[in-house]
Amino acid sequence: MPRRRLRVPLFKESVPTIQAGEGPAGIVTVCGEIRFEGVGIPGFFAQSGEPMIEHFDGPDGLREHFIVLLAESARPQFGTRPLTEALLKQCLILLLRRKIERGGAPLPWIAALSDRGLSKALHAILHRYSEPFTVETLASIAGMSRASFASRFTKAFGQTPICLLRSARLSRARELLATSDGSIDQVARCVGFSSRSSFSHAFRQAYEIDPLAFRSSSLVGADSTS
């Protein structure tokens, strides 16, 4: 069901806590939000229809990691915020590993990461996005036939290999537009587009703004915060 995001003011070097109800303390629940940015694909967790739950106790639980996390949160000091963020990321990685090992991965792409072929293709898309990949070349990297690769990839990641490749390219392009001085043509070529026109068209479709206008707005935002 849709959940409303509760925002609590973050004071410098502190972690917000919220107490629900007036009675004595009962169940302690730790909630965290991790935002993925940069070269990556948005929406990987959007397919999750319910929360992932892990028990603290047991030989393969997360008790020790959460003890450190809660202790740091209870006594905020210098560096608490970046440390707790790192701990939450560590817990997320361990949680996903356990889900894969138990065969209960709640998202198709989590299980797909244990597939060596699909993992190799995904790695190529995310880290070699400037190369002129096709479904055929990606299938070759995965060691599969074109039809089998396209079907398994789309089922696992919720979109076709080429759509995912375009998303990776545009994500990197948006980062370059905001942080580099390269021309629009240079950015387009850097992320694998053959022409400025095709790049601009894809960028407008994805972000509803022209690349040049996006760069201008990014520069205005940077000046206002400097």
From TrEMBL:
Residues 132-215 form the HTH araC/xylS-type domain. Signal peptide: none annotated. It comes from the Bacteria. Keywords: DNA-binding, Transcription, Transcription regulation. PANTHER family: ARAC FAMILY TRANSCRIPTIONAL REGULATOR, HTH-TYPE TRANSCRIPTIONAL ACTIVATOR RHAS-RELATED. This is AraC family transcriptional regulator. Pfam families: HTH_18 (PF12833). GO terms for molecular function: DNA-binding transcription factor activity; sequence-specific DNA binding. The lineage of its organism: Bacteria, Pseudomonadati, Acidobacteriota, Terriglobia, Terriglobales.
